[in-house]
Amino acid sequence: MRTLILFCLGCCLAGCAGEPAQQWPELDLTRYNIPLKIHAPDSAKVVAKNLSGIMQDVTIKSPADKFSLQILASQAPTNDMARLKSEQLELVRDNRYFSSIIREDPNGFVFQNRIDTTAYYGFRYIVYQGDQEYVFQNSFNATQSLAEIEAMYAAVKQK
């Protein structure tokens, strides 16, 4: 009984500690033509590019915080959220190094790629708003631990 109580107390304390995403301040992306808010470290640098008028590419990086995020915004091919997510799942699963889906939510997922014995993690989170699709994903030029990927995933989730 005592062990059970200590276990429950430990879980409660761990839950109250707060994720890094909750500690990061809110970042309004409206000035980068993304009408959404996320959480990001204060030291994050934002770079926005317009790709031939078809797609908006916004990167948000803070190397000190192991935060490296990319947002791709374009006109959505459909308003069916399940289909938008399914398309992202298919893209990820088509990678020859794809290993497994770690966690899945209605609007996104965290996954694992494996090269030999080394695991690499990533995520996709999709927002459909108006006629636009916003795909949040980890940047490809950085490798993060599962905990760092989970923190970025939590930072972009919309309420």
UniProtKB/TrEMBL annotation:
Keywords: Signal
Signal peptide (residue range): 1-17
Superkingdom of the source species: Bacteria
UniProt-recorded name of the protein: Lipoprotein
Organism whose genome encodes this protein: Neolewinella lacunae
